[in-house]
Each structure stands twice: as structure tokens, then as C-alpha cells.
Amino acid sequence: MRRDAMLFLALGAFLLAVAAWQQIPTTLFMLVTASAYALIALGLNVQWGYAGLFNFGVMGFLMVGGVAVTFVSYPINEAFWASDGPFMLFKALLAAVFGGVLVYLATNSQRFGIKGKLRTFLMVMAWAIAYIVYRSQIDPAARLIEAEAGFVGGLGLPVVLGWIFGGVLAGAIAYVVGRICLGLRTDYLAIATIGISEIIRALVKNMDWFTRGTLTVSPLPWPTPSPTDIVAAGLEDATMSTILARAGFLSLTVLLIAVIFYFLQKAYEGPWGRMMRAIRDNNISASAIGKNVTKRELEVFILGSILMGIGGAILASFSQILDPSGYQPINHTFIVWVMIIVGGAGNNYGALFGGVFIYIVWTISEPASVILFDIISDFSEGVGIGAIPNIESRALQMRVFVLGLVITFALRYFPQGVIPERVRTEK
Amino acid sequence: MMNELIFFFNKVIVSGAVLGSVYALGAVGVTLIFGILRFAHFAHGDMMTLGAFVAFVLAAIASAMGISTFWPTGFIVLPFAMLITAGLALGIDRTFYQPLREKGVKSVTLLIASIGVTLMIQGLIRLFGGVQTRSFFENEPKELFRFDMSWLGSSRSINISEPQMLLIAVTVIAVVALHFFLTRSRLGKGMRAMADNPSLALVSGINTNQVVRATWIIAGSLAAMAGTMLALDVILKPDLAFNIVLPIFAAAIVGGLGQAYGAIAGGFLIGFAETMSVFNWAIMLRPFRDNLPEWLPNDLSIVPTEYKLTVAFVILVVVLLVRPTGIFKGASS
């Protein structure tokens, strides 16, 4: 326990050093993003640390959160509501429901005595018909909306509602993904979840009528007063208003994390957490003593994904832009894994520590590499080899290398993480 | 009618065979590593990119030395690039995977380590090579073969570029060579034995360390081959193969992880599935256009072109659900 406190103190000192070097507004910016990542890391810790579920599709859930908050909080697009768009989308929804019923009937056709090859054939046909019917409705709707209104716009509701909706939507998708994939072994589960997150990315990127695709949606509103609001309220100093606005946003995310952390910790220490660890460590014996392994795993998968969805929504709101091409597996999936592994899987404090620490390391490794390269460049010029060209753009790439180095180093030398899981034993 | 068939051939068969060859070469490496070392080697895509960059550097050196032949320079240096990449693959295994294996970690840990390796290779490539795209054909022309099909009554010709033809040719050679290696040589038989049952292979006196090394050499050189040929066909860029590592996994899983022949079949299956699903089938109906009903839309492709890669993921997920061991019953450790 004392070691953990020391680690967090060291993290605080590190943050102060970063603040002294990178100025306070930049540090606050990093901290807000880091807090969103800490929330996402907590979500992954619930899935991987509590239950041993191998989710490599974090990016997909972050995108879902981003899309959800955009839809809820972005101002209303009058042109869309005035057009035929809503009606046509309603028809497409009906088509989707029809298709869903068809697939459901075909899947459950053994209840009507249809078995074997005929059932397989019916299922394939049902999927094909559902797809064709849905496409026949959604395609004209998408064309009309893109031509007449650009995209559907938002609902103009409060941002926090959008965060909640992000969590709900991510949870709903996690339910479907979990029902499909959770039976798979770890390696297969990893690849399947990556595949699904790539499917989500392709959809979000290309559903221009809903997300504007590569055109991006901005500016998304903040839940707290933004710098311009503060300037409008009468504070002239630009730096001060940025600091105040970011501090306001940060206090909201920190409050959110504190509440979520409290409940996660309660759940972890309680019977539910012990049951999850039992399932993780030996699912056969857990099911032998009457635990419904599949159901519990689905439950924990949804819980973790809800946290990821909220985190993704916070990220999108804070950066004020929904940019589907900005989502990359490295920045949004693998980095979260590094956070968990370095911090310590199975320990919420570890996830929190890893989330903040790795995000800061990831961000400052760029300016740090610029300094490093400048030194090397000066040296190589001195010996006559010549300077390093394009130092700025090269330094950016160092982040990825540093991330890879950290992950392999951590796996080899401290596989349990810096704040490892502690199993409470009776004394 | 002939025109449409030739169009179909160009768009689906040729592109599908090209794509399938790349996937197959990648998937063989993935599947061999899975069979022998029991983990999903995620860095395989970046090993392909690495091989392509090695080939590019060698080609640049070769043309600086004034070597110019009938063949594209990038193709001439391919054997050397394969050798170097195989060496790099061995080095990567030594430094990153072997220590973990010796600690007896779970396969999941190795998978995560391979992601770390992916990131490092990507970072290094971009650090030294920058993010811009490069072409192997800056100083020499990229030849395009046109096969006149007028004897079949078609005004269109079958088009296939030189790199595409070479790619298909080297894939066939590699597959045949691999087949003879696996079935005839002592080491190849040892590899198959170890994929089937590692402990039995060990007690039967098979040198497992040698088998592991052979696996990395084969996987590394095939990755370099696939990467270089892909870069010759399209363009060389830092994320050349990172984007296709998932279709490659899809191919390996469809074929059954651990099954070399399955991986080849899976690669072509995924390749053809992708080209067929974005092909506009309405073109095939054009000869009958006078008899077609009015309501038939002009675009009959199964998915829009921008979802081409998604097809592989959908196949992947469906295969994982319906038949997780793949069509050729793979290892399920």
C-alpha cells in the first residue's frame, strides 16, 4: 500500500515537472485526455483484469461513444428535419426490423421442426433477403440526406446526456458482440474483436449521412463553459480563460472517474468481484459450483464496454470534433492495452496509474524526441555526417516506437504491472 | 457478351488472384508460426512492410551501381531481401519472443508482445523512411501486358501488369517449394510433427529449436516476398501491410490455423471474395438489358467499394462462429 502511494506521489511529481516544462494549459489539456483514457483503461481492466476477456476492439467502442455524443449534443440540423429524410430513415428502420424478424425466425426454425441443411439454407436466405431489403431502403435515404441536408445533424441535447447515451450504445453493441464472440478462445477472441472494431470503423467512416465521414463534424459543444464562453462572460485574458475552461472540464471528468472508481472498487471487493476472478482463473470449477460463466462474462464485457463508450464520448466532446479517420488501432486500442499491462491488470489503481502515466509518456515522447534528435543532429553535424532532416515529423513517429518498447519491456521485466493485483488472503 | 466476360476476368479473376497471392503468402507465415509456436503473430504485416523496405533499399543500391536488367530491379533483389528479412525475423524472435517463451508465459502474452514488436517496427520504419509513399518504378517503366482477345470476338483485352504476373508466378513457385519442403525434407516433416504434437515431437528426437528457427526463416522470407511484390504492384508506404494483417489472419483462420495448405486456400478464397463482392454484377447482365425489368438498379455490387476490406472481416467473424477450426480443421490448442 505504501508503495502504491509512493508511485502516485511520483506520478504527481512527474506531472508537476511536465507542467513546468510544457506550460499549464497544455498540461491541463493532456490531463483531461488522460482522464478519459484512465476511464477507458478502467473499462478494459474490468474486462481483462477482472474476467480475463480479451477485447482488442477498444477502438470500436470509443468510436461508438464519439458518434453517440455527436448525435445527442450537436445542434439540430433544420434542413434534415424539413426534408423527406426522417420519413425515409423510418422506412429503413422498418426494413431493418423486418430483416431482423426474418433472421430470428430462420435461426429459430428448429422450433417448427426444420432442421439440418434446410435450416442452414433458410438462415442464409434470410440474411440475404434482410440485407437486400435493408439496402433498398437505406441507400436512397442516404443519398437524399447527403444531397439535401449534408447529414442528420444532432439533437441539441446536453452533453452529459450524450456521454450517457455513448455508454448505453456501446453497451448495446457489446451485448451483440459478446453474444457472438465470447465463446471463442483468447487468440480467436482477440482477432474477432479487432475485426469487429474494424467493421465499426468502416461503417462510421462511410455512413456520411450520419457521421459526415471524412468531412468530420465540429465543433461539438462542451458540457462545461468553453474558453470562448468565458471570454464572452467578460474575462479578457486568453490564457487564463483557457486554463479556467480546461480546469472546469477536468473537474467534471475527475468527479466522474471518482464516482465510477468507487463503485468498481466496491464491486471488485465484493462477492461479485470474487466470483469474476474465480471464473477468470478457472472457469470449469466456477461453472461446477453453479456459476453461469457465459452470462457473467457477457455481463462484465458489457460493463467494461459501457465505460469505454463513455470514455470515447468524453474524448470526442473534449477535442470538439468527430473525425472518423482519426481513429487508429494504435492510438485507441493498443495504447489502452499498454496502460493496463504497465499499470497492472486486475487492479483498478494500476489501471488509473497506467492510464494517466502512459498517456503523458505517449504525448511528451514527441517533444522529448525533438530534443534528443537535436542533440544527435548537432553531434552528427559536428563529426561531419550532416544533420538529421525533418526532425519534427520524425519525432512524431518516436511515440509509436516508445510505446512498442514499453510494452515489450513491461512484459519481460514486470509482467504483473507496477501496481499488481493483490489477492486478499485470510490471516 | 465476350466483352463483359473479359471485363469480369480483369476485375475479378486477375485482381482476385493478385490479392489472393499476397494474402496466401502472408497467411502461410502466420499459420506456420501459430502451428509451431502456438501464438497469433500480429507483427507479421509489419514484417512484410519491413521486407519491402529492405528490398527498396537494395534496389536503390543496385540502381546506384548501375545494375539494370530486363526484370524490375525490385524483383531482382528479392532473394537478398528475403534473406535479410529472414535474418531480421530470427533476430526479433531471439530478442523478444524467445525470452518470454522460456519463462513459459501464456500465448496471450506472446500475442501482446507481437503487438509491441509491430509498433516498434512501424516506429522505426517511419523514423528512418518518413511517412511518404515511394515507387519502385521511378527510374524504369512498369510494363503492362495486354492480351488481345479479338479471336474470341472481344474488343477488350486482358490486362495484367508485369509485377502482377511475377507475383502470381513467385507465389506458385513458393507454394510448390513449400509443399516439397514440408513433405520430403527431414526438417519439414519435423515441422509438421511439431505442429501436430510438440511434446511427442520433442521425445521423438526432433530438434525443436531448429524447427523454430526454420519456421522464422520461412515466415520471414515469405513475408518479404509478399511485401515486396505488393509494393511493386501498388506502392511502397509505411502502412503497406498493417492494413492487410487482418485479412491475412482471416485467410489463416478460414484455412484452419496451423494448416499450411489451408492458409493458401484461405488466402485465395478471401482475395476472390473481396473482388467478387465489390464487382458490379449489373455489367454481366448488360447483354440482356433489353429484357430486364425496369426496377433493377444500375449498381448490383454486393457491397460498395469502400467496404472491400470489411468483407474479409465479415468472413472472418462468420467462420469463427460457424466453424472456428477453419475449413481444413486447424489446431485449436
Question: What's the total helix number of chain B?
Answer: 12
Approximate helicity band of chain B: 55-70%
Overall radius of gyration of chain A: 24 Å
Rg measurement of chain B, Å: 21 Å
For this entry, what is the oligomeric state of its chains?
heterodimer
Q: What's the architecture of chain B, going by CATH?
A: Orthogonal Bundle
Overall pLDDT score of chain A: 89
Within the largest sheet of chain B, what's the order of strands?
1-2
The end-to-end distance of chain B, rounded to whole angstroms, is 50 Å
Proportion in helices of chain A: over 70%
How many domains comprise the coordinates of chain B? 1
* Element order of chain A: H for helix, E for strand: HHHHHHHHHHHHHHHHH
What is the overall number of helices of chain A?
Answer: 17
**What is the CATH third-level topology name of chain B?**
ABC transporter involved in vitamin B12 uptake, BtuC
Question: Which structural class is indicated by helix and strand composition of chain A?
Answer: mainly alpha
- The number of distinct β-strands of chain A equals 0
Detail the poorly predicted runs of chain A: none
Question: What would you call the shape of chain B?
Answer: globular
- Classify the secondary structure makeup of chain B into a structural class: mainly alpha
CATH class of chain B: Mainly Alpha
Q: In brief, what are we looking at here?
A:
The complex is a heterodimer of chains A (427) and B (333). Chain A is mainly α and 427 residues long.
Describe the model.
The complex is a heterodimer of chains A (427) and B (333). Chain A is mostly helical and 427 residues long. Chain A has a domain at 33-77 and 151-325. In chain A, 77% of the residues lie in helices and 0% in strands. In chain A, helix 2 packs antiparallel against helix 14 (293-319), helix 3 (58-73) packs antiparallel against helix 7 (159-181) and helix 15 runs parallel beside helix 17. Chain A is globular, with a radius of gyration of 24 Å. Chain A starts with a helix and ends in a 14-residue tail after the last helix. Helix content of chain B is 66%, strand content 3%. Chain B is built from twelve helices and two strands; from the N terminus they run αααααββααααααα. Chain B has helices at 2-37, 44-64, 73-76, 78-102, 107-129, 162-184, 186-196, 198-203, 208-233, 245-254, 260-278, 308-322, and strands at 144-148, 157-161. In chain B, strands 1-2 form a two-stranded antiparallel sheet. The termini of chain B are far apart. The chains are: A mainly alpha (427), B mainly alpha (333).
